[in-house]
Amino acid sequence: MIMEKTTKFDDIRPYDDQEAIPAFQRIADSEFLPIISSFIYPGDDLEKIRSMVKQFSCIEDFQMKVMYRFNEQVIERSIKQFSCSGIEKLTPSENYLYVSNHRDIMLDSSLLQYTLVKNGHQTSEITFGSNLMSSPLIIDMGKINKMFRVERAGNMKDFYKSSLHLSEYIRYVLTHKKESVWIAQRNGRTKDGNDATDQGIIKMFGMSKPNDKIAALAELKIVPVSISYEWESCDILKALELYETSKTKYVKKPGEDLNSIITGILQQKGCVHIHLGAPITKEDLMPFDQCTSNEYNRCVATLLDERILSHYRLYPNNYIAHDLLYGNCMYKNNYTREQKQLFLAHIKKLDGYDVDDLNALKDVFLQIYANPVNKSNFI
């Protein structure tokens, strides 16, 4: 990837191929390379891997020889069945704005990239929260993986400026660089199972073309993406955070995001499915033409929600949790006795945590799995 020289987006854009070369050297010499290598290339000689990384000459080398292998290892070690649907309706030569529900910090976008490559598409650029840029190694790994910076803090004036800047960059990537982009439907992961598009995201998309709200979004070719995990990524960690939040102001602990990334990678996920919906067209948006700006953003967010939720795949765990949470057998035909016993054994892991109200914690945990069932009933 040779990037047209520009200074406007230098503060947020990923590395270009020339900038990636010294980053490859830094990664190869990093004290963490043995850990990275042992996961991605189990059994291979470390010095052989170090030499390979130092010889990379472009970002595509890294994505095809490291990230593709990384995703293969994640699937082989922690996913029982990985599947996708809808991608056959997308054109490999086109570029899209993939707007996805967000359940795992890293894997949602990473598994999508794997799916794209497997089906003859180019990888996309990926949003990279500034809160995750916690070390030079993580910054290097992100920016050579086509990740661009999204600010997560600041006052209202700074937030407006950064939102406009982000909007302009996304449009620049899609219409000028002719590359696709992945972004989550909201700021941060869904932790309670209730996927919902933040209408502020829709507002941000349109900021870079304010004079024509229909064309502003139609031009981006927004593709709704649904990712469904049989076993919710970081489910216990999410339940603990939600429980603590219900009792007091939650303060994120040092290293918490990194712990969530590692847990998400290693945790058994069962079946995982990705669905790519049809792009949002001008015809889809025209019914909202007479809406005020706020109503328009809300209507488009609702449209995205409908398309994401309608293809969210419910698993036995979702139905089991719903029956347990509400104390009935409404969905008993959607799971087996063995599946229920396995789920109950998983819940029992919460017994090891020292909390004031264990039953309340377990209810929070059940809601994570049960809420998607409730959402599906309103589509």
In short:
By secondary structure, the protein is α/β, with parallel strands linked by helices.
Helical element count? 16
Characterize the largest beta sheet: strand count, sense, and whether it forms a barrel: 7 strands, mixed
CATH class of the largest domain: Alpha Beta
Strand order of the largest sheet: 1-7-6-2-5-3-4
The coarse silhouette is globular
Structure explained in plain terms:
The chain folds into two domains: 17-233 and 269-313, Glycerol-3-phosphate (1)-acyltransferase (3-Layer(aba) Sandwich); 317-376, no CATH class. 51% of the residues lie in helices and 10% in strands. It is built from 16 helices and seven strands. Strands 1-7-6-2-5-3-4 form a seven-stranded mixed sheet, sandwiched between helices. Strand 3 (125-129), helix 6 and strand 4 form a beta-alpha-beta unit. The longest helix is centred in the middle third of the chain and has 22 residues, at 156-177.
